[in-house]
Here is the input.
Amino acid sequence: MQRRSIRELDHRELSDVIAGMGEKNYRAGQIYEWVHRKNAADFDVMSNISLSLREKLKDEFILDPLSIVKRQDAGDGSTSKFLFSLPDGETIESVWMHYRHGDSICVSSQVGCRMGCKFCASTIDGLSRDLTAGEMLSQVYDIEREMYRGEGRISGIIIMGMGEPFDNYDNVIKFIRLLSDEAGRNLSARHITISTCGIVEGINKLAAEELPLTLALSLHAPNDELRKRIMPIANAYPLDQVIAACKGYFEKTGRRLTFEYSMMRGVNDDKHCAKELAGLCRELMSDGVLVHVNLIPLNEVRERELARSDRETIDRFKIILEKNRINVTIRREMGSEIDAACGQLRRDNR
Ligand code: SF4
Here is the structure.
């Protein structure tokens, strides 16, 4: 049987394990600190833990379930992409991004994805399996160790890599609670963004968690007709229901909503789409909802025919939104020397 990663145990679960091993309860706190605060790479560096307890832990758990298979760095140092292998031979991607206000990591939540978005490489082979909380946490811990060697930390997490987070809800919430645990890594939930393609039950459930996360909706089209053409999930959840759930999330948490909008040439980038999107945002804003639109120059996928809008078109689109007093940014493009589209690096290394 495959051993679990000790990283996926919360404090209570670890205390139960330690008690089961006949050890004193305070040992759980010491081990938890090594795992989550000190980002220990090995059980043997846990210098205040006896050799016999370390051996017992090694018999039952692994520390790090991931190994770095490949790393691609953008020439300007702004972005690094990682391909990790998992204990069962599957692979996942994560991306480290440098910003003036602090660095972030884009984390995968599943191996593959079953949502079928037409512009995405992660979904081409469907879903293989969900990631555990420990496998998500390890993307963060391993990249921090690789990038900073103990001399720094990331300041934000975006759950927007491979997979639909609400399709793996319980593990994703456990990951977030572990990451934001004050006794552990202690990253404020305010610095965590969770992105969904629009699963209404997931949005409603998240609103009830009382976690001040930023919710990002992968919108990509301002109406159902167009959305259904590029996102099959739109057949299950009409846009008015998705937007109502997002509004409910704002009302519950007070957190500004982000709408992600990938700019695809000749598909969703004309002025009619811009005006329709502006109307959708303005309706929310008139009810006091804070909205931010993030325009994403499409990361083209080799296996797909969709192309990126040109810069002039994106700028024109942005101006229409700005004229409607909508808060809008254009996402920085990743270096072309790395396989920017989510899921592409994994596909190319099979
Ligand atoms: S965009 Fe996200 S939800 Fe859609 S297929 Fe890709 S990983 Fe899945």
The chain has two domains: 4-62, 67-348. The longest helix spans residues 133-148. The first strand starts at residue 4 and ends at 5. The pocket of iron/sulfur cluster is lined by residues 113, 115-117, 120, 122-123, 162-164, 197, 218 (CB under 6 Å).
